Amino acid sequence: MPRRLLRDGAIVVDEWRTTADGAVADDGPLMLALSEFRAERERWLARPGLLGIILSPVDDEQELVPHLARLALVAAEFTTVSEGRGYTQGRLLRERWGFAGELRARGAIHRDHVFLLARCGFNSFELAESEFEGGAAALRTFSAAYQTSNDRGLHSALRHRQLS
Amino acid sequence: MYRYDVIDKTLVDERVAQFRDQTRRFLAGELSDDDFRHLRLRNGLYIQRHAPMLRVAIPYGLLSSKQLRALASIARRYDRGYGHFTTRQNIQYNWPRIEDVPDILAELATVEMHAIQTSGNCIRNVTSDPLAGAVPDELEDPRPWCEIIRQWSTFHPEFTYLPRKFKIAVTGTPQDRAASQLHDIGVHIARGPDGEPGFEILAGGGLGRTPVIGQVVRDFLPREHLLSYLEAILRVYNRAGRRDNIHKARIKILVKSLGIEEFRRRVEAEWESFREYGARTPVEEIERVRGFFAPHSYRLLEDADPSAGQEAAFRAWYRYNTHPHKMPGYRIVFISLKKPDVAPGDATDAQMELIADLADRYSFGEVRVTHTQNLVLGDVEQDKALELWRILAEAGLATPNIGTLTDMICCPGLDFCSLANAGSIEVAKLINDRFEDYDYLYDLGEIDLKMSGCMNACGHHHVGAIGILGVDKGGEEWYQITIGGAAGSDASLGSVIGPSVAKRDVPETLARLLEVYVRERHPDERFLDTVRRLGVKPFKERVYAAPAAA
Fold first, then answer.
1. Please, which residues have CB within 8 angstroms of residue B526's CB and are 6 or more apart in sequence?
2. Is residue A161 very low, low, confident or very high in pLDDT (cuts 50, 70, 90)?
């Protein structure tokens, strides 16, 4: 069965591959760890297929800024359920650097994480198959919020209450 | 006080539904212990020595009488008839069942309360001056800012998985009653060069294993920028705070390792990069929240000492357990939860209900929780003090010891807490037995005694004029004593006097410390000031003089 994930609230086939998945066609979507990308930047930028970068928690997303137009995907790796740096990476990619491509959360994430991740701008989630349904529902956990953010719809009704 | 609107209510109700589902999944075996752990911790639910412990938020320590009645009802129905008020102005229940917690949260929601972010590595309940809005020396009531911070920090999408817990305190007077210099962030209401409203911002304070006094990050911040500046601090911390070692993960370690200059540079640079597009707190929102804290409709009265000519017991209580109010004819009344035979900070369901009734009758229906684990009726007419005292005394709530040695801060200790190395409640009892003579206590004057059952320092021992820390020595409970600490505007960390002492020797050790003080003090000099003037040496010599503390 092809690998699937939750993207924009729907369960879809994941067409993206990493170098760990073996040989990937030159025109297929490929996501690389930032360290892999750094090592052979020109080669990866020149390949015809879609390109994505996986940030580890210690990476600074600002390093991607010169390449954002070329990147179709940025993924944040969550090494543990309590890892929190990816939330900042995601929020700044959207808010400060205007990244409009797919923003993906991967690693130790569960359905209980997706609501806040979505508020930080993440729109795809590598969840276990058993969590897809719960994860999609969890996107609607709260119907209001106190903070302005990158999610759509939630805060527009709260204009008078926007705190930050 | 603040009242929920439809947004606040929706969020709290939806949180209850979320946690009910999470609890159901845990009990059904769909969530592992570990996965449930980080969820329940963000809802104040710990698994403790005997049973789960549920910590309920009391935002900036302010309760309505209706809320206090609900807390009493929960104590009676889901616990063993009492609750424990904490140093961060919250309440803890020690005996709820996990499967009941969603129902408890649902009941709390009906009175605009919750347990959101009362534990876990996130922004905790914001605390403040328990006398806010009632004291004469206040620059501005800090509570509207606390409420604005409460809302901003609730389910903050970026800062819910921090390296470690994060505590913020806000004060509005020069006299710091919120231990703000010992918080991850201390917010001091201040005025700018031209009198404009704003804040002084401190960061990097904290207790625990490595006690540190906070340092000033910014002298003056215009008020509309408060939340963006807090975000800048949190973001620097979220990215650079250590996550590899739980004991080095608080922001105080980051500030220490970078140095305040570099920390400040990073915060300011981060803030500059988004302050223009980061939304400000609009003046309308500031005014909307401030409207909830408008002064009560005080009567026009004149000051008159109601204790003059009254019985000695009332005079003592009035002197020690009440505090001047900003309005003539009014008084701030402390309800001591430090009765000698009761665990410090504990109140029964019946006491909570009585206090709620008294709040309605005597104090505009509001009750405050202090960080010293007492309760306060903030706005009592002076000529009602006598009848109020009679009722409190009958209920065991008029122990006239506020600010004295036996008004001690004390964590739950080994009796309840799974972290503790040693008991603290029992030591509190030994101390109470030894120091039961009120004439002696009053002669000693103001002494903050603070006791923690382990180095996590929930009892703030580092900042007690006398601090007691429980340690485990080969399976036995021993106690390390420090002197010279303070939590107020003159905050300082206490110094260890020497080797730890056995439990039975704690009262004698205190007696020797106090003996030196009484011998050496200058007129009107507090214990703390004598220690600061003389240093530890004379105290140490007396405590460890032969025969050893017996």
1. B445, B446, B447, B465
2. low
Q: A30-39, A52-61, A147-156, B79-88: lowest mean pLDDT where?
A: A147-156
Q: Answer yes or no: is pLDDT of A41 > 50.
A: yes
Q: Is the peptide bond before B547 cis (omega within 30 degrees of 0)?
A: yes
The tens digit of pLDDT for each residue in B166-195 reads 999 999 999 999 999 999 999 999 999 999
Rounded to the nearest angstrom, the minimum Cα separation between A12 and chain B is 24
At A150, is the pLDDT very low, low, confident or very high (cuts 50, 70, 90)? Answer: low
B37 plus B152 within the same structural domain? no
- Partner-chain contact B238 A85, CB within 8 Å: yes
Residue A160, pLDDT above cutoff 50: no
How far is the alpha carbon of A81 from chain B, nearest alpha carbon, in Å? 8
Average pLDDT (B208-217) is 94
The count of structural domains within chain B is 4
Domain that holds residue B13: 6-110
Domain identity same for B322 and B428: no
Mean pLDDT, chain B, whole residue set: 94
pLDDT tens for each residue of B338-393: 998 888 899 999 999 999 999 999 999 999 999 999 999 999 999 999 999 999 99
User: What residues of A are in the B interface, CB distance below 8 Å?
Assistant: 57, 81-85, 87-88, 91, 95-96, 110, 112, 116-117, 119-120, 141-149, 158, 160-164
Q: Higher model confidence: residue A23 or residue B221?
A: B221
Interface test with A, best of B39, B40, B41, B161 (most A CBs within 10 A): B161
Residue in the block written with tokens 């001591």? B336
Helix (H, G, I), strand (E, B) or coil at A32: strand
Handedness of CA B401, B404, B410, B415 (dihedral sign): negative
Question: Collapsing DSSP states into helix, strand and coil, what is residue A33?
Answer: strand
Fold for domain A4-161? Answer: TIM Barrel (3.20.20)
Give the per-residue pLDDT at A155: 42
Torsion from C-alpha of B454, B459, B464, B467, nearest 10 degrees: -30
Distance CA A75, CA A30 (A): 12
- Supply the CATH number for residue B172's domain: 3.30.413.10
pLDDT, mean of residues B108-134: 97
DSSP one-letter string for B108-127: HHHTT---TTSSSSSB---E
Quick one: how far is CA A50 from the chain centroid?
15
Closest CA to B1 of B113, B153, B93: B113
Global confidence as pTM: 0.95
**Are residues B413 and B478 located together in one domain of the fold?**
yes
- The sign of the dihedral angle between the CA atoms of B419, B214, A57, B153 is positive
Does B285 contact A160 at a Cβ distance shorter than 8 Å?
A: yes
Q: Does B241 touch chain A (CB under 8 A)?
A: no
Task: Report the alpha-carbon distance of residue B411 to residue B419 in Å, rounded.
Answer: 11
Residues B122-138, mean pLDDT to the nearest whole number: 96
What is the C-alpha separation between B269 and B267, in angstroms, rounded?
5
**Among A57, A116, A164, whose Cβ lies nearest the Cβ of B155?**
A116
- Helix spans in B409-505 (H): 425-434, 438-444
Taking the domains of chain A in order of start, what are their residue ranges?
4-161
Q: How confident is the model at residue B48 (pLDDT cuts 50, 70, 90)?
A: low
Residues in A touching B154 (Cβ below 8 Å):
146
Interchain contact, A88 vs B231, CB within 8 Å: no
What is the structure's pLDDT at B275?
84
Matching residue, tokens 């205190």: B510
| Distance in Å, alpha carbon of A24 to nearest chain B alpha carbon | 33
Quick one: B330 and B444 in the same domain?
no
Determine the distance from the C-alpha atom of residue B92 to the mean position of all C-alpha atoms in its chain, rounded to a whole number: 12
Of A1 and B434, more confident: B434
